[in-house]
Amino acid sequence: MRYFEMLAGALLVGLVAMGAGAEEQRSAVPGGVLDKPYLKRGGKGTALGGYIDQELFWNDKSKTFTQHRFIPFLHGQVSERIHVMAELEFEYGGLVKGRGESDGEVKLEFATVDISFSEGLSYRAGLILSPLGRFNLQHDSPLNDLTNRPLVAREIIPTTLAETGMGFYGTFYPGDRSLLGYELYAVNGFNGTTATSIRNGRGSHKADNNEHKALVGRLNYSPMLGLDLGLSGHHGAYDDAGDHALTILALDADFNRGPLQLKGEYARASVEGAAADQQWGYYAQAAYHFLPGAVGIFPNSVFTGVFRYDAIDLETRDEKRYTLGMNFRPEEDTVLKLDYEVYDQDDQSNGLVFSVASYF
Predict the structure, then answer these.
(1) pTM, full prediction
(2) What would the pLDDT profile of 189-218 be if each residue is shown by its tens digit?
(3) What is the extent of the structural domain holding 327?
(4) Structural domain count of the chain
(5) Per-residue buried b or exposed e for 152-164, using 16+ beta carbons within 10 Å of the residue's own CB
């Protein structure tokens, strides 16, 4: 595929760019695994951080508090060029009423060892947070201005998507203001059947269901600070026999100018041999930040108004959602969100969602 040829080309450019730098270096994926608040605060050795979120749903079908996530991060700096990172997820984790069963889960969300040869070339192995779309790399609740994740980031790119494998990533600077980043990995891939959804086909972290490896990668280009464009894809055998392939292609864009932020993502998936063999979805979101420092006891505070439009088409069903939200950040890493969601499907409930999320 021409797309993966482009990614391989980016890897070769990374090799050529070993040792290259820039006067103003910045993260290739702001808010990604290499750009967490605890990493900025920590030094050498092992750093601990994470985030927590809680939600209140209030609609015709549900009026409940949900203790959704408690996510510890670990980062160990073996040396300046060798790092080990991991993220654990405690999701729900309570007991079902009247039964001694857990209705939550504890799982390893990602765990990698990185060996850096230069800024343009680093080796990564382990349980890798898949660079399939920008949202999967920036899915942390405190980063996002709305509570629920986009529909496309649930059904087409099943966030949070992590896969076992290895490969390379890097960042280099074509000009004084521009940035080019890439990630390219060989992974076990999905473990599904032609009858299941993409989300239900996320692969095992223990073993491949077939002997065919998948390729996943992302190429992003930022021509200037505040604008980032991304192209990503995943291709590999899907079923146990390895006779059917899953291909997911995604485009994403993020634009920041002063108090205004515009972003969106489009993804299309084709599942060879499936009844619903062509699925797609996208979202578009606009946010405006205002009244910075207006709450005197929180000098770093800011309010944000946000609107998002979601749409997915899974062939067997399609769905649209409109979300209007307002949030307050007493600090950049802590946010209280109030959203109102409107769906076009009768089996979904319009209503309010209130949540709080914070890094620590």
Answers:
(1) 0.88
(2) 998 776 668 888 888 888 888 889 999 999
(3) 2-359
(4) 1
(5) bbbbbbbbbbbbb
